[in-house]
Design goal:
This protein is α+β, with helices and mostly antiparallel strands. The protein has eleven helices and 19 strands. The protein has four domains: 40-142, Acetamidase/Formamidase-like domains (Endonuclease I-creI), CATH 3.10.28; 143-221, Up-down Bundle (Methane Monooxygenase Hydroxylase, Chain G, domain 1); 224-307 and 324-337, Immunoglobulins (Immunoglobulin-like), CATH 2.60.40; 341-462, Putative neuraminyllactose-binding hemagglutinin homolog like domain (Double Stranded RNA Binding Domain).
């Protein structure tokens, strides 16, 4: 009996022990406590000694690169806390004062200046299931020292380009000088809103960006173009084609080398201004040809091409503003067209009989008068026009008889005694009931041939 009770007691103990071991502990049933976000997540820190940037990235939206996105945004946030202001003697302030840049234009340049932080520190990271936060900062003193080193390097690079421009400036090498000066100026672009003092190796103290701009303006303002001729004369003697030498000088009246220009004058077809560049003697040769006789006060316009000076790797809009307004006014050379004079003679026969008719000669004279050309005596004329014509019997067909007109036109240069234009035909046919009427019909068709074809071709050959 005693043994039985002992067995029951031991069994109960084992059962209770086993149950107690199988039950979970109270601590394992409680969820882990979440780490509360630090103060810098709840409120953006402010420090008198540091620039601070705080940003967050969503882990669900950016499951792979959320850390780098948060860091980038924090750097941008830190950059926004760096105050950038235009100082009184800055290049941008000077450009605004002189109306080269508008205030809005200066602002757009200012806001595109990059702020780059080096050796910043990560002051804190906080993340939870959905978000990743980062807290960056850099000492204001360290940043200013870093900026001073970078600015000094930029100033040195800009001055090196400026120094390289001095020799081309002395030689009046316009394109080379402006290219070096613009690149020197744009090297300083991140600091156009600051006063950029620089001490040269000779000890001269410069406001470097303003000195560079001053040199650009001086080069452009000293460029002068001239023409030895007061007017361009286009005459029959030069066949309405003249080559005009134009001279361009720069600093000190010396030839301007490599200076880009455009020129334009009216022609038969619309053409854009042609681009030219001065040679080593500062000269440009301009061909003036194909100027229409009906042009009203034609002129040659020779203009400095500032657009051609803009380097392709620099901001085109800013360069245009920097270069505008300094260039000289265009050189204008009047073009005078002296129309040629003509002498007209003809031999117009009908079936071998010289009846002193002047149908074709009157046609030529009327055509010339309509075009504004004068007909004069033989010894005063620039050109002689000779017409020879005769009809012959072309035979009978049914009740109609035909006449064939043999016609020749020759244009001779009176000065050089050479033929400038010649044409002939023997296939012009007139058909009527009588031979005289057929001959008259052939002459009418010959008249149309002259007006519609030959006389136009004749003028084209000399004008």
């Amino acid at each position: 009996m005693m043994f039985r009770n002992l067995t029951i007691w031991i069994g109960s103990f084992v059962l209770l022990f086993g149950l107690s071991c199988g039950l979970p502990k109270e601590s394992s049933l409680t969820a882990p406590k979440k780490t509360p976000p630090p103060d810098w997540v709840m409120q953006h820190p402010i420090s008198p000694s540091h620039y601070i940037g705080v940003a967050v990235a969503n882990k669900n939206t950016n499951p792979v690169d959320y850390a780098s996105i948060a860091t980038k945004n924090a750097l941008n946030n830190m950059a926004s806390t760096v105050s950038v202001r235009i100082t009184g003697q800055s290049f941008l302030n000077t450009m605004e004062t002189n109306k080269v840049f508008s205030e809005d234009f200066s602002s757009s340049i200012n806001t595109t200046t990059d702020i780059v932080f080096e050796n910043y520190e990560t002051a804190g990271i906080y993340e939870n299931e959905n978000e990743y936060w980062v807290y960056l900062r850099i000492s204001k003193m360290a940043y200013q020292e870093q900026q001073a080193r970078k600015k000094n390097e930029v100033l040195q690079n800009a001055y090196a380009l400026y120094e390289r421009s001095l020799e081309p400036q002395k030689r009046n090498q316009i394109n080379t000088s402006i290219d070096l000066l613009l690149h020197a100026l744009f090297t300083l672009k991140p600091y156009w809103n600051e006063q950029n003092n620089f001490t040269t190796p000779n000890g001269d103290n410069l406001l470097l960006d303003q000195q560079i701009y001053s040199d650009i303006q001086k080069i452009l303002q000293e460029i002068e173009s001239s023409c030895d001729e007061s007017a361009i004369m286009l005459t029959a003697q030069n066949h309405y084609h003249q080559t005009i030498p134009l001279k361009v000088n720069g600093h000190g009246g010396s030839p301007a080398v490599g200076a880009p220009f455009t020129y334009h004058y009216p022609t038969d077809k619309y053409t854009r201004p042609k681009k030219v560049t001065t040679n080593g003697q500062g000269m440009v040769m301009v061909d003036v040809i194909n100027v229409p006789f009906e042009s009203q006060l034609p002129k040659l316009e020779f203009s400095f091409d500032t657009e051609a000076l803009i380097p392709t790797d620099l901001d085109q809009k800013i360069c245009r503003n920097l270069l505008k307004g300094a260039e000289a006014n265009p050189l204008i050379v009047p073009i005078h067209i002296v129309k040629p004079t003509f002498y007209v003679e003809s031999i117009e026969k009908n079936f071998g009989d010289n009846g002193n008719q002047t149908i074709l000669m009157s046609t030529v004279q009327g055509f010339l008068a309509q075009k504004g050309f004068a007909v004069t005596s033989k010894n005063k004329a620039d050109y002689w026009i000779t017409i020879e014509a005769d009809t012959k019997n072309g035979g009978l067909s049914s009740e109609f008889i035909s006449a064939l007109l043999d016609m020749t036109l020759v244009l001779t240069d009176n000065q050089e005694q050479i033929v400038r234009y010649q044409n002939n035909t023997n296939t012009i046919k007139g058909v009527q009931l009588s031979l005289p009427s057929a001959g008259a019909e052939a002459y009418k068709k010959g008249k149309l041939k002259l007006e519609d074809e030959w006389l136009k071709q004749m003028l084209q050959s000399i004008l």
